[in-house]
Known about the structure:
By secondary structure, this protein is of the alpha+beta class. About 15% of the residues lie in helices and about 25% in strands.
Amino acid sequence: MSWNVTVDTEKCVGCGECVDVCPVEVYEMADGKSNPAHYEECLGCESCVEVCESNAITVEEN
C-alpha cells in the first residue's frame, strides 16, 4: 500500500514537529518548510497530521 503525502507550504510554519515525530523519516526541512522528501517510505500512521498545529499535512491512500 502506498500513501500520498502533501504539505501545504502556505500553511506550514516550519516548526519541524512532523520531522521529529515521523518514525520513518519521511520529512526534511527545506527553506524553512517541511518537505515530504521520502514520501515513498510513509506508513500511513498519520502521526505527522496529528502533531501539525497548522493543519498543513495531508496523508491519503493511493
